[in-house]
Amino acid sequence: MEGSQLFTRILPIVTLILVVVFSLALKLISRFKSRALGSLSGQSLAGFQIDAKNETQDRNRIKIKCPVLIEKSQGIMKTSLRELALSGAFLTCPNPLPIGDTFRVKIFMEERPPLKFDAEVMWNNKNVSEDKIISRGMKVRFLQLSDEDRKILNEIVVNPL
């Protein structure tokens, strides 16, 4: 009888301790999981960069700096080209456009007439803190490239001046 009274007195305390230990374990597991996978808000992945370069990527992309104009119905925005690929580019600008926005891009290169393409924003680092990015900007893909456009891009990227 005395053993059962002791058990009934200790049971709530043991239960409370187990609940605390279990909730701490869940919190730790959740924290490690969110660090490993990234949170849905994207904040834990803000500085996450994959450096998976291979020869194919390097041959199909060049680092280049030249002025660019973005033409939208709301007006013209001055930006700068940082990287050019056969299918798109990385444009640096203080206020990147939202993902999915489409516009006309005009690239001014030395010793060439301006290149004009329709483009769409594929990615931007608008929501990344300033201390975690190298260049504020956006990645765009070129839309409806003609054979002549592809030939010009290939010439610039594969055989730069």
Tell me the overall shape: rod-shaped
CATH topology of the largest domain: Thrombin, subunit H
| Tally of helical segments | 3
Instruction: State the share of residues found in helices, binned by percent.
Output: 25-40%
What is the succession of H and E elements?
A: HHEEEEEEH
Rg computed from alpha carbons, rounded to a whole number of angstroms: 27 Å
Instruction: Find the CATH superfamily of the largest domain.
Output: predicted glycosyltransferase like domains
CATH class of the largest domain: Mainly Beta
State the total count of DSSP E strands: 6
Q: Which stretches are low in confidence, meaning pLDDT under 50 for 5 or more residues running?
A: 39-57
β-strand percent reads 25-35%
Sheet/helix structural class:
alpha+beta
CATH architecture of the largest domain: Beta Barrel
**Average pLDDT across residues?**
81
Kindly report the spatial arrangement of strands forming the biggest sheet.
1-2-3-6-5-4
Give the CA-CA distance, first to last residue.
95 Å
Explain this structure:
It is a single chain. The chain has 161 residues and is α+β, with helices and mostly antiparallel strands. The protein has two domains: 2-37; 55-158, Thrombin, subunit H, CATH 2.40.10. The chain is 33% helix and 32% strand. It has helices at residues 2-37, 55-59, 147-158, and strands at 61-72, 75-85, 88-92, 102-107, 115-124, 137-143. A six-stranded antiparallel barrel has the order 1-2-3-6-5-4. It is rod-shaped.
